[in-house]
Protein: Carbonic anhydrase
Organism: Chryseobacterium flavum
Amino acid sequence: MKAHTYETQSTITPEKALEFLQEGNQRFVNNLKANRDLLEQVNATREGQWPFAVVLSCIDSRTSAELIFDQGLGDIFSIRIAGNFVNQDILGSMEFGCNVAGSKLIVVLGHTKCGALKGSLDAAQIEGLGMDNLNHLINHFTPIINEVIEENEERSSKNSSLLERLNQQNVKNAIEDIRKQSSTLRNLENEGKIKIVGANYDVETGAVSWLL
């Protein structure tokens, strides 16, 4: 499988880009990796890159987007931050990926058993460790916890139902933030030039489910 070129990228629709990732995850789950010469792709992309998708995922070591979607060099822009949320710098990266470099799809990829979200549920314990910047990060999810937690429900990472509801809502909120905070990406989506979708990776099975 060869690296994408300007010509191949320009023919990809947002729907086809999504299909590429869906098919790639099916190959990953079935252990049927596409045949790629990565050194050939290094050579093919030395003058430029034409990725067809931007994937925002967690830094979790189990969630490498290139691997779980079975993609090669130059196929996707991979943005990673603990808890897969957006900020201004990440939005700028997405704007570059889509409006400058021509990507057709944005995926916000959450995952089961997310450590960042577990930390937000156990914030009192994490804050006791005295890591100022980590405390700042996990407090980002407090408003989302308040959205999904039920009255008298246990706020704990051991509460698997709450953790998964938080994971799903966090992905949905990130998509809303992209649309609200970036007029560039919102306009591209409204014009049908890109799609913005959510997804969830299961760390036990390797399968990606889609929030379309």
